[in-house]
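Observation: inputs received (chain + pyridoxal-5'-phosphate).
Thought: call the complex predictor directly.
Action: predict_structure
Action Input:
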Amino acid sequence: MSQPIHFALSQKDIPTRWYNLNADFPEPLPPPLHPGTKQPVTPDLLAPIFPENLIMQEVCPDRWVEIPAEVRDIYALWRPTPLLRAVRLEKDLQTPAHIYYKYEGVSPAGSHKPNTAVAQAYYNKLAGTQRLATETGAGQWGSSLAFACRLFGLECNVFMVKVSFEQKPYRKLMMQAWGATVHPSPSDRTEYGRKLLAEDPDCPGSLGIAISEAIEDTVKSQNTKYSLGSVLNHVCLHQTVIGQETIEQMKLAGEEPDVIVGCIGGGSNFAGLTFPWLHHKIKEQKKYRVVAVEPSSCASVTQGELRYDFGDTAEMTPLLMMYTLGHKFMPPRIHAGGLRYHGMAPMVSHAKKLGLVDAVAYPQKKVFEAAVRFARTEGILPAPEPSHAVAAVIDEAIKCREEGRGRVILFNLCGHGLLDLAAYDSYLSGTMQD
Ligand SMILES: *Cc1c(COP(=O)(O)O)cnc(C)c1O
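Observation:
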């Protein structure tokens, strides 16, 4: 054994608390607004859709929030997740850079999303909720919530963006295997879905539409709450177990990152990896360059505006201060379904506005070229979403080679691509378009 490449923690090292960046922002995060009055929303306004304990987390000012023992016990099924050094990719790129990746694909659903799904199911169970309604794009969130609901004995009702429902049957089957009910969205289950289907029976759907349907289902059903897998503050909070573990693992590796990279759809895996590092960047003036990578075809941060906008297409959510392409934006059918969202988490947007993070955009073919290069050196087939991060990391490592400069690069490999092989097929057969 020549060189350590795997930096393992044990079950006792699972973080005991979540980190809340809202406690450390140099300027406070702009609050969500009521769309009618334009006043900050009060917790009672959110009460029909979220349980009180999660509403309190959404507005929580504390830096640290204790993780309930029941949640940590479930995290132990796959956490702590591995941190690996990509020595074979480094060699292939002939780069002096050191590349590390945190691998969240080892969870039961194959992505980072169970980190918040388990927490949300727990708090809902505690609050007496019997049924959760949600939306899902490519199915990663729906499958994560289906899994979490099963463990806590909750019913799970999922509105899945129609184009994915048809193109990606395997995650739908995972949800059904865990006992969830899945509808293609737009569906005939809601007034809003029926209206859209009457206008266009072939409407491919979007996350914004599916969110509207899930919220309508929530307010019109008994003992039902709504659950969102990204964007919101409490989701970013739950994901910070990723970054906290990574800080300990980089200590084991004896290195500190110069560049920290993650892909952004709604912003939660990026928040999860980077916020604990931003804590040190803010408190100790660390020089980490923190980079968010989005698809060129749905580039909310690099091409959108920072303003108040709705989180959904039907204008049912509060107004959120975020980078947005507009809530009516219909993203093209790219393979990274998890990155097809018009907005960005308010906390990630705020970090970008304050100059704590940078953003770049990549086109689809370049992303898959990077994914295949990663698979052929490191073995793991990355999901299309984190392949955006892989593409940016490869470019950074090549820059290091050209400048003759060693740097430490860390990124979040937030899911595997074993259920996204149709996307690989499209790339490998040469039919993929940008
Ligand atoms: C859902 C998902 C994303 C996008 O959501 P974020 O909230 O931006 O993390 C990215 N990668 C994977 C693997 C996902 O499942």
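Thought: report the result.
Final Answer: The mean pLDDT is 96. The chain has two domains: 5-15+76-110+234-428, 114-228.
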